[in-house]
């Protein structure tokens, strides 16, 4: 930690620490922006957006140290936040006579352009706060990311949203989030595992993906029926490392499939994270 007992040394250490955090945060944001600036993705022959003369669909609101808030095109906001956290993980700060890696938590809200901004901002703060609490509880020092798709202008309280809309008919938990970002793992609680699942489902016809989403919401019995039906046609859901799921797509009341299916049309990776781009 910072040196104690010597006021002058403590002040120098604190200034150095603050400078490193600020510099690391800015460099990580620049690295994420470079990914966004070069991003141009066609789907079904249509371009999502095109960066022209350095103009990208993003507006930063707060950018100081690891405190970052921005508004962007909803289709890239989640991926951009993940890229920022991934870049931040490669930075270090001077703490006393040693160095420690930087990390942060992020909350991402995907909402309609006409959604009240104040409510979206409050929800993002709530997501970030709860993600930090979960990270502390797990004793993990890495970067974590949570997100929420908002389809109405209800109260911006994460716990109420999750309790109301993210329980299967038989009581199973549909949410796997938050995810750890930047450690290269692909398990059910890791960002690369989420992206790997998303890429798999992105190759499916939209009607099949929506049917599986509805089956998961209906519970284990409907999910097992869906998986059995499509296995007979040579189609299976993606494998998830470290997840002991059975043929119904669930394990101990949780599923890794709902999250990527829910944001299938609201997320587009900016890099080759989680596997090969379809």
Layout: helices, strands, pairs:
Layout: H1 7-37, E1 42-43, E2 46-47, E3 58-64, E4 67-72, H2 77-88, E5 92-95, E6 98-101, E7 105-110, H3 117-138, E8 143-149, H4 158-165, E9 179-181, H5 191-202, H6 206-218, H7 220-231, H8 258-262
Parallel strand pairs: 7-8
Antiparallel strand pairs: 1-2, 3-4, 5-6, 8-9
Features:
two-stranded antiparallel sheet, 41% helix, alpha+beta, globular, 278 residues, three-stranded mixed beta sheet
Lateral strand order in the biggest sheet: 7-8-9
Helical segment count: 8
**Which percent range describes the beta-strand content?**
5-15%
Shape: globular
H/E element order: HEEEEHEEEHEHEHHHH
Give me the secondary-structure category.
Answer: alpha+beta
Straight-line distance between termini: 45 Å
Taking all Cα atoms into account, the compactness measure Rg is 20 Å
Percentage of residues in helical conformation = 40-55%
Major sheet, described briefly?
3 strands, mixed
Low-confidence stretches: 41-46, 274-278
Tally the beta strands.
9
Describe it for me?
The chain is α+β, with helices and mostly antiparallel strands and 278 residues long. Helix content is 41%, strand content 15%. The chain contains 8 helices and 9 strands. It has helices spanning 7-37, 77-88, 117-138, 158-165, 191-202, 206-218, 220-231, 258-262; strands spanning 42-43, 46-47, 58-64, 67-72, 92-95, 98-101, 105-110, 143-149, 179-181. The protein has a 3-stranded mixed β-sheet. A hairpin with a 2-residue loop joins β1 (42-43) and β2. α1 (7-37) crosses α2 (77-88) and α6 packs antiparallel against α7. The N and C termini lie far apart (45 Å).
């Amino acid at each position: 930690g910072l040196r104690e007992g010597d006021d002058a040394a403590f002040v120098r250490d604190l200034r150095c620490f603050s400078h490193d955090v600020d510099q690391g945060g800015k460099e990580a944001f620049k690295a994420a922006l470079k990914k966004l600036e070069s991003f141009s993705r066609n789907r079904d022959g249509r371009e999502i957006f095109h960066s022209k003369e350095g103009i990208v669909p993003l507006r930063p609101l707060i950018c100081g140290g690891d405190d970052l808030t921005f508004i962007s095109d909803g289709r890239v906001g989640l991926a951009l936040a993940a890229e920022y956290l991934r870049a931040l993980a490669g930075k270090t700060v001077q703490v006393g006579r040693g160095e420690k890696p930087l990390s942060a938590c992020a909350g991402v809200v995907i909402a309609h352009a006409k959604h009240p901004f104040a409510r979206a901002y409050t929800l993002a703060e709530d997501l970030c706060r709860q993600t930090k609490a979960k990270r502390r509880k797990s004793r993990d020092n890495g970067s974590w990311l949570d997100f929420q798709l908002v389809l109405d202008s209800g109260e911006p309280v994460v716990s109420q949203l999750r309790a109301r809309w993210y329980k299967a008919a038989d009581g199973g938990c549909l949410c796997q989030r938050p995810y750890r970002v930047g450690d290269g793992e692909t398990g059910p609680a890791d960002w690369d595992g989420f992206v790997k699942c998303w890429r798999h489902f992105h190759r499916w016809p939209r009607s099949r993906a929506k049917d599986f989403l509805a089956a998961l919401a209906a519970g284990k019995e409907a999910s097992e029926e869906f998986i059995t039906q499509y296995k007979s046609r040579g189609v299976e859901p993606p494998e998830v490392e470290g997840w002991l799921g059975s043929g119904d797509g669930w394990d101990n009341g949780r599923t890794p499939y709902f999250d990527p299916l829910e944001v299938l049309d609201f997320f587009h990776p900016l890099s080759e994270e989680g596997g090969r781009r379809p």
